[in-house]
Amino acid sequence: MSVTSLGLATKASAGTIVGHVQARSASEAAGAGDAAGSYGSRRYKFLEKIDYGALRDFIVHIDKVEAPLPAGQPPPKGAVTQRDGTFVPHVLPVVAGSVVEWPNADDVFHNVFCMSETTPFDLGLYKHDPGKSVTFPQAGRIDVFCSIHTKMTCIILVLPNPWFARVTDKNPPCTATPKTSPSVPTIRAAKPSRSCASSGA
């Protein structure tokens, strides 16, 4: 999958990045012209085909630029709520060092856990408890599950800097305003379970 149409307006020390996110298959991005790709073969007719035009809810961020939190500053906070047997939101972008709370709004027990090498945790069984929280010190993708309900999953996207934006529809522009930026930033758009990158000049 690729991301296109990211119009950039940057300076060496500061700038604003504005653009549109468009998801395309690898064959479309390569200019192959065959939107169906190998899916046109009868051999793969029963495989699920991704409708790239229907993809929504991307996280766009500046990649490979670290901006540690200032010493003594309280860590940023986020929250993923367990509601109606799902994690809300499904994808939460946070800067490294953030604290994420895990309130359970359901009348049933959940057990939130993660087996990530960087931030493994197991919050145990609980319900109606707003006090559970986890700190995410390192950048990376963190996949989180419920040990009781196997279809409950979510992603904590821990980023190395706070310059990111969520794009919730196909066409509206997204904006990120870094305090400092490299002369040639790399813009990355992440989609649940899939990710793609595009470099801007």
Describe this protein's structure.
2% of the residues lie in helices and 43% in strands. It has 201 residues and is mostly beta strands. It has a 5-stranded mixed beta sheet, with no helix packed on it. The protein has one helix spanning 26-29, and strands spanning 2-4, 8-10, 15-19, 22-24, 58-63, 77-79, 81-83, 86-88, 91-95, 98-101, 110-114, 121-126, 133-136, 140-146, 153-159, 164-167, 174-176, 186-191, 194-199. It has 2 domains: 1-67 and 167-201, no CATH class; 68-159, Cupredoxins -  blue copper proteins (Immunoglobulin-like, Sandwich). The protein contains 1 helix and 19 strands. Mean pLDDT is 76; it is low at 1-12, 177-184 and 194-201. The radius of gyration is 19 Å and the shape is globular.
SSE diagram, text form:
Blueprint: E1 2-4, E2 8-10, E3 15-19, E4 22-24, H1 26-29, E5 58-63, E6 77-79, E7 81-83, E8 86-88, E9 91-95, E10 98-101, E11 110-114, E12 121-126, E13 133-136, E14 140-146, E15 153-159, E16 164-167, E17 174-176, E18 186-191, E19 194-199
